Amino acid sequence: MKSPLFTRLFLLFPLLFGSGITVLAQNEGGPNEFSIDSQASLAYTISPLDYLKIALYVADEVQFQTEVRVSQSGMITVPHLGLVKVADLTVEEMREKLYEPYNRDFYVEPHIDVVVLSYAERSVTVIGKVNRQGLVPFPSEEGLTLLEAIALAGGWSGDRLSDKRNVTITRTSDDGEKFVIKVDARNITTQEYPLQEGDLVNVPERLW
């Protein structure tokens, strides 16, 4: 059986070249509910406006469950502890941050589950010589590469119009500074040049 990643990349090729704890996996609770059920998901970084479900168990008995949206400042409110900053923490780091005070002051060896009920909307912008300029959704868990974003923007406008040699990615650093990455996209693969949320991709017009 082909992996979802293989299927996703396979479907992109016509556009690109023709023109407890385990992965964030979909839960039975609904189409937008994702549960932490593999080691890969521990690396997911929580962002402002993510919507979370947190449950705490002791000896398999639920002590509390709460649903919270991460504030713009990265905070959540949880029972007993009050405000806790979780944005920019991985899921594993968040669980450890909650476990320490709960285990020390309130419960004996609690088990904490985290479920991402919905992700904050994320996107990159693709402009220039592509067939559909504008915002491209940024998958929260899988990420997005340069060629995948161009494919989702409708693909190149054509070899005569799109200058694949001089594609640029404008990115904002953690300290707020903007910088530009220049890419010759003629011979790169779909796995190369992973994008970040908020990136601006520009495909210039080919000059003769």
TrEMBL record:
Keyword Transport belongs to the record: yes
A single GO cellular-component term on record: cell outer membrane
Main location: membrane
Top-rank taxon: Bacteria
Domain (SLBB) ranges: 123-203
Coiled-coil regions listed: none
An example Gene Ontology molecular-function term: porin activity
Occurrences of domain Polysaccharide export protein N-terminal (ranges): 40-116
Record key words, sorted: Cell outer membrane, Ion transport, Lipoprotein, Membrane, Palmitate, Polysaccharide transport, Porin, Signal, Sugar transport, Transmembrane, Transmembrane beta strand, Transport
Membrane topology: Multi-pass membrane protein
InterPro entries xrefs: Poly_export, Poly_export_N, SLBB_dom
Localization terms from the record: Cell outer membrane
Keyword Zinc-finger tagged: no
Biological processes, Gene Ontology terms: monoatomic ion transport
Similarity comment: family membership: Belongs to the BexD/CtrA/VexA family.
Protein name: Uncharacterized protein
Species whose genome carries this gene: Oceanipulchritudo coccoides
Taxonomic lineage of the native organism: Bacteria, Pseudomonadati, Verrucomicrobiota, Opitutia, Puniceicoccales
